[in-house]
Amino acid sequence: MDIRAVQRRLRALHYAPGPANGVYNEFTKNAVWAFQKVNGMAPNGRLNQRFMRALAHPRRPRRLSHDGSRSHVDIDIRHQVLTFYRGRRIVLISHISTGSGRRYCEAGHCGIARTPVGDFRVTRRVSGWHRSPLGYMYRPLFFHLGYAMHGSLQVPNRRASHGCVRLPMNVGDTLPDMVRNGTPVHVRR
Hints:
Elements: H1 3-12, H2 26-38, H3 49-56, E1 72-76, E2 81-86, E3 89-95, E4 103-106, E5 109-112, E6 118-121, E7 124-125, E8 129-132, E9 135-144, E10 147-151, E11 165-167, H4 169-178, E12 184-188
Parallel strand pairs: 1-12, 10-11
Antiparallel strand pairs: 1-2, 2-3, 4-5, 6-12, 7-9, 8-9, 9-10
């Protein structure tokens, strides 16, 4: 299996596998998960024949809005995938982890870990690490109250956040450079 060729193909399809260095690392695994989810496969990270066939004939992510005239972010909670568009053109597709749906009590804050659904806009951002009452966020892009898309050291292949949209660190580092304040964010189940 030529991992470098897989990484190059994923990058050409607007996923974020990290550098095409031939190493199946965490970034590559996250990109493979995202690709598998978009293509109706179990996100198991395996580069089997079915994966390779899909890589040759990929599907596009499920479009969540009719917002084709400008840049926007679609967050697909059901499939745990984020897609960033410039007009009708896909710029980035990423694996994510959203609200777990579980009850939590942490640092004096209690609630149900849900990611808000609806149409929002990026309202503010923080450079570098930001400490919130529920944990650390890397380069957060806030889109509704204290909810943000942000880099995280833990982006498991399941819903696990308090409600924010966790991004792999490489995506958390690049997305803020692509998305401006005021950019629409469409979150759907």
